[in-house]
Design brief:
The chain is of the alpha+beta class and 266 residues long. The protein is built from 12 helices and 9 strands. It has helices spanning 9-14, 31-34, 56-62, 91-104, 109-118, 127-134, 153-159, 193-203, 206-209, 213-216, 229-234, 246-264, and strands spanning 2-5, 18-19, 43-55, 82-85, 122-124, 146-150, 170-184, 186-187, 219-220. Helix 4 packs across helix 5 and helix 5 packs parallel to helix 12. The longest helix has 19 residues, at 246-264. The radius of gyration is 19 Å and the shape is globular. The two termini are 35 Å apart.
């Protein structure tokens, strides 16, 4: 299985879903990512950041400054401008909720969401609707210039545009970013453990890792993999993104989502 990220990691490990496997390529992978799984039950394959994206042209036309903090989105000048995903139904939505918990703490994030709600935040079920329908910087040209998306969304806007622009039409609020790591692991009970291990080694091989950025718009977990120039020119990869430990997420995520639901959508 490939795709378990750090928001679900502790649950998967506690449930013993995976058979431990030490990849032959482990030394070439991000030390911070591999440290999340000291027992090698899963192997990091890719990384990225969930971040608020902004429509550069919209903000310039309206004379609205790019926010420099999550707190800015509760100010009157940003009323009715942000669309986010529901953390109960969306992976980036959950990551953004965790970003606010990391930023404002266990006793402060609730008030932040009350303030966001009062300031007109829009909540939708998933990323597709948020980005392609409600975000003004996408092809759908929706009404809101801020959306919870990814630090690698701007290079996608450049690559898939026709004609290709010289600069990315969207930006990233770096202070809003929450770091995600995706893992692959051998499912416990498989009849083909050797083949499964070979597949994991292939997923973290330099050949495969260098294909990831322009196909899935994620960063390779392998430290010696070359990142394409579009990522270097247009993506945002904050040096110190927001984070919550997998153990804290597992212990509290249900209560956090329930509380969020009571505050924001009920």
């Amino acid at each position: 299985m490939w795709g378990v990220d750090n928001t679900l990691l502790a649950r998967a490990l506690d449930s013993e879903v995976f058979e431990p496997y030490t990849s032959s390529q482990l030394a070439n992978l991000s030390a911070a990512a591999t440290a999340l799984v000291p027992g090698h039950e899963v192997t990091p394959v890719d990384e990225g950041d969930v971040c608020i994206n902004d429509d550069i042209g919209w903000l310039k036309d309206k004379g609205v400054a790019v926010p420099t903090s999550l707190a800015d989105f509760t100010k009157p000048e940003y009323k009715d401008l942000l669309v986010v995903e529901n953390p109960a139904t969306s992976s980036p939505g959950l990551a953004f909720l965790l970003a606010t918990i990391a930023e404002f703490g266990a006793d402060g994030w609730q008030q932040y969401w009350k303030d966001l709600r009062a300031n007109g935040v829009s909540v939708v079920d998933g990323w597709d609707q948020a980005y392609y329908e409600d975000f003004s910087g996408s092809t759908g040209k929706g009404p809101r210039p801020f959306v919870v998306s990814y630090g690698t969304s701007p290079p996608a806007e450049v690559i898939f545009a026709d004609p290709r622009p010289d600069t990315a039409p969207t930006g990233v609020v770096a202070s809003s970013c929450f770091h995600q790591v995706e893992f692959a692991g051998i499912l416990r009970g498989t009849k083909s453990p050797h083949a499964a291990g070979q597949l994991i080694d292939y997923l973290v091989s330099k050949q495969f890792q260098e294909v990831l950025p322009l196909t899935l718009f994620v960063y390779p977990a392998r430290t010696d993999a070359t990142v394409p120039p579009e990522f270097q020119d247009y993506a945002v990869r904050p040096a110190a993104p927001l984070s919550v430990s997998p153990a804290d997420i597992e212990a509290n995520s249900k209560a956090w989502i329930d509380t969020w639901t009571d505050i924001v959508v009920r």
